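Q: What residues go here?
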């Protein structure tokens, strides 16, 4: 290189560097990060500020932990959440195995039966259990007909109905987490164990279960953390002795004099949630929140190696402990026939599928009832409640409001989320895991905490009761959905195709429009639908941020469920189920092809 060329090179460097910065995909992260910083992080910080604004910073927190009502409620919340997580694990593991071992059409049907309820609003699924367990519901009628009950029993408004309802709502989350680990297993390990003389139960205890522990841990923690902030299900299915901590936040929100103390309740719940997630992330990696591949892959490799070493040498401390605890039980269980495990998986998996699908089917049938009250089976088939729904101006106004807000929210979430996904996948920015954690963190914040924090911000900007305000608030939860789905779609696109187009002179916009966008279009469509559905179903944020002049469909459902139960609610539930079924059918190729964010 000549001296003249060397002298000329520094003069071009600033322009080249500026051009490279402008083309850097990391810049695509800025809109989503800025949006979340203003409408998500800032309100949470302000919430914390108000909670310590008393005469002393700890005065409100001292009241939370000194008043038995709140302290006992907090302990009850953690106890119920832990119990629900255990029940989901007990029922979810065999269900995940059932999906894995099924083939063809049977596997598709079972997986659909698990996935479908996951996307149906919690309010509707809880309402389905109210119908199923009601005095005129099918459970009471069946038990009375069999002679188990002399007369219809009170199956609602107790701890059992709360645990049942919450388990049914959160069970799909556990099944999907475990199935993700089971589907990645190397089947040769199980065959090697069987060839070495291990029975089916020994293979499960020594090979299958250890290798799926990452999925078990992720599912357990996700269920536990989500249950901590539950509000809808315990309110509708529980009694006075079943109040959970989030319910006190909504109750205190009705009192103007509770400012400060109300925020301290929310901060306590938020801190506990973040502490659980932080401890879990320390051991499992924070990828468990968004179902990232690193969690399972990183954990599966050491587990697989341990499994191989376990058959070669059983003298390691971990193996010796497993031998001391597990082998006496395995010898006892080894006397059971081989078909015992197979039928256990089939029966428990069948119970789970029935428990998830039957309540929804019952509600759909009731929507065609001619009766003026909830009863099953219906005395006659009629369309009277569909006519009432479509002719009622209040219901239709709420429906169109929800439709408009969901469309606006989906546009916001897709625009910001797709841009952020491009920045995450295509850039070489440092700290991708931390940025991804910020983008998906809204899914772990209890909705009542987020709703309360947003209320203060929206009051300042006169956004309470506005469509755009609700749409922006709903987009906070829709954005993580879009990021995860679009990022998974982008990973399936060969970056060399984009590089080839750029080498031939195409601008970044042209590369995206002609190469990237067509490749990720199915994922983008699926993300748009689920962001739309998330907003359409959103209740808790709407409770805090709506007004008397702006009612959404979930708010109308909530009001009617609390004050009157009639088949109009079943009509609304049926229409949403049909919407979800149609959306999942369109998104199935994307969901089947996605393996999470690596």
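A:
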């Amino acid at each position: 290189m000549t001296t003249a060329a060397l002298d000329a090179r520094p003069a071009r460097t600033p322009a080249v560097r500026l051009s490279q910065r402008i083309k850097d995909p990391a810049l695509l992260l800025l809109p989503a990060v800025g949006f979340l910083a203003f409408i998500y992080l800032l309100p949470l910080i302000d919430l914390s500020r108000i909670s310590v604004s008393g005469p002393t910073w700890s005065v409100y927190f001292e009241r939370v932990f000194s008043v038995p009502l709140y302290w006992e409620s907090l302990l009850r919340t953690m106890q119920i959440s832990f119990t629900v997580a255990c029940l989901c694990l007990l029922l979810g593991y065999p269900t995940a195995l059932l999906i894995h071992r099924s083939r063809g059409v049977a596997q598709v049907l079972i997986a659909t039966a698990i996935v479908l309820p996951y996307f149906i609003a919690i309010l509707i699924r809880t309402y389905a259990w109210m119908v199923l367990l009601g005095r005129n519901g099918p459970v009471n009628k069946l038990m009375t007909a069999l002679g188990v009950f002399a007369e219809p029993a009170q199956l609602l408004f107790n701890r059992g109905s709360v645990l049942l309802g919450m388990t049914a709502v959160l069970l799909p989350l556990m099944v999907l987490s475990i199935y993700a680990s089971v589907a990645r297993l190397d089947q040769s390990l199980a065959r090697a164990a069987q060839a070495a003389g291990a029975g089916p139960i020994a293979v499960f205890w020594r090979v299958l279960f250890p290798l799926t522990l990452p999925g078990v841990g992720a599912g357990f923690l996700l269920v536990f953390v989500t249950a901590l902030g539950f509000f809808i299900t315990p309110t509708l299915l529980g009694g006075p002795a079943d109040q959970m901590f989030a319910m006190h936040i909504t109750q205190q929100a009705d009192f103007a004099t509770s400012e400060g103390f109300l925020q301290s309740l929310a901060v306590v719940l938020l801190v506990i949630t973040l502490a659980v997630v932080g401890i879990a992330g320390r051991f499992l990696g924070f990828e468990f929140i968004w179902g990232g591949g690193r969690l399972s892959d990183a954990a599966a490799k050491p587990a697989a190696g341990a499994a191989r070493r376990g058959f070669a040498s059983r003298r390691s401390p971990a193996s010796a402990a497993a031998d001391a605890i597990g082998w006496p039980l395995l010898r006892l269980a080894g006397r059971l026939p081989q078909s015992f495990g197979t039928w256990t998986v089939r029966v428990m998996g069948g119970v789970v599928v029935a428990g998830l699908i039957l309540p929804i089917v019952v509600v759909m049938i009731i929507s065609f009832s001619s009766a003026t009250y909830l009863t099953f089976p219906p005395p006659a088939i009629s369309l009277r409640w569909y006519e009432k729904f479509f002719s009622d101006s209040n219901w239709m106004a709420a429906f169109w409001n929800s439709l408009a807000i969901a469309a606006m929210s989906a546009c916001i979430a897709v625009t910001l989320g797709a841009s952020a996904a491009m920045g995450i996948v295509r850039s070489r920015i440092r700290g991708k895991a931390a940025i991804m954690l910020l983008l998906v963190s809204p899914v772990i914040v209890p909705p009542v905490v987020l709703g309360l924090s947003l209320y203060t911000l929206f009051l300042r900007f006169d956004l309470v009761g506005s469509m755009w305000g609700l749409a922006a608030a709903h987009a906070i939860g829709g954005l993580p959905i879009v990021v995860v789905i679009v990022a998974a779609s982008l990973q399936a696109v060969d970056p060399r195709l984009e590089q080839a187009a750029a080498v031939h002179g195409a601008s970044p916009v042209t590369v995206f429009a002609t190469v990237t966008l067509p490749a990720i279009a199915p994922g983008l469509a699926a993300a748009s639908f689920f962001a739309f559905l998330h907003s359409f179903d959103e209740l808790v944020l709407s409770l805090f941020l709506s007004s008397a002049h702006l009612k959404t469909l979930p708010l109308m459902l909530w009001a009617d469920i609390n004050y009157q139960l009639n088949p109009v609610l079943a009509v609304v539930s049926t229409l949403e189920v049909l919407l979800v079924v149609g959306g999942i059918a369109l998104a199935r190729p994307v969901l089947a092809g996605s393996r999470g964010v690596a």
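A: Context that may help when evaluating the design: The CA atoms of residues 231 and 471 lie 22 Å apart. The two ends are 43 Å apart (CA to CA).
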